[in-house]
Prior knowledge:
The chain is α/β, with parallel strands linked by helices and about 240 residues long. The protein has helices spanning about 25-35, 50-60, 75-85, 100-110, 120-130, 140-150, 155-170, 175-185, 190-195, 200-215, 220-230, 230-235, and strands at about 15-20, 40-45, 65, 90-95, 115.
Amino acid sequence: MNTPTSPTPPVARPVRLLIVDDDPLVRAGLTLMLGGADGIDIVGEGADGNEVAGLVDRLHPDVVLMDIRMPGMDGLTATERLRRRPSAPEVVVLTTFHADEQVLRAIRAGAAGFVLKDTPPAQIVESVLRVAAGDPVLSPAVTRQLMARAAGGAQDDRNSRADRARRRFDELAGREKEVALAVGRGSSNAEIAGSLYLSVATVKTHVSRILAKLELNNRVQIALLIHDAGLLDEEGGGGVGIR
Length: 243
C-alpha cells in the first residue's frame, strides 16, 4: 500500500492530465491547484463523460482525473468505455465519499485508484504522478472498505464470484500465481523480487503477463481477483493492500 512517506516515482516528462468534472468551481480549483505542480501539465478540461473520448483523442492525456457523479454520461460509464480502448490513459476517480459503493465498480472497470475531493493538494499531485508511473493509488482505509464491499452480498453470490476467480487464477503458471498472490498481499515489485529471488525486471514481466492473460488493466484488479478467490484467507493473510 502506498504510504505518505513513499517517494514519488520519477517521470521522464510532465504528466499530461485531463480533468473531468461537471462543477466549474471544482475544475477551476483543481486546475489552480495542480497547474503549478512540478511534473504535471494540465492539457484540458471536460464537464461530462460524453466529452471524454473526444478529448482523449485530441489531447492525448496520460491520466484522466474523473468525477463519478456527472449528468449525461457519469464517470463510471466513461471510465468503462475509456479503459476498453487500446492505449487508454490511466484513470483516477474523484469522489466525495470514503466508501462509495460505486468506487468498486470504477476499479473493476480499470481505474487505477481514486482520491477524495477534500484530499490535500500535495497528495492529489502525488496520486497523479504515481498512477502515471504505473503505481495504483488507494488509501489503506479505503482499501479495507472496498474489499469488505467486494466480499459482501449473498452467500451464493460470494461462492459464485470465488469460483470464477479461482478458475481465472488457475489459468496462471506456477510463478505467475506466486507473483499474483504477492500483489494481492500488497507487495511492491522490489518486495516480490526479494521474497521470490527474482529480479525486479522479471517481476514486472510476470505482472505484465498476468494482466494480459487474465485481461486485467492494473495491479488493483489482480488484488481484487485474489481477494474474490479467497486465497489470502486460506494462507492466513489479512486484508488486501495495494501498492
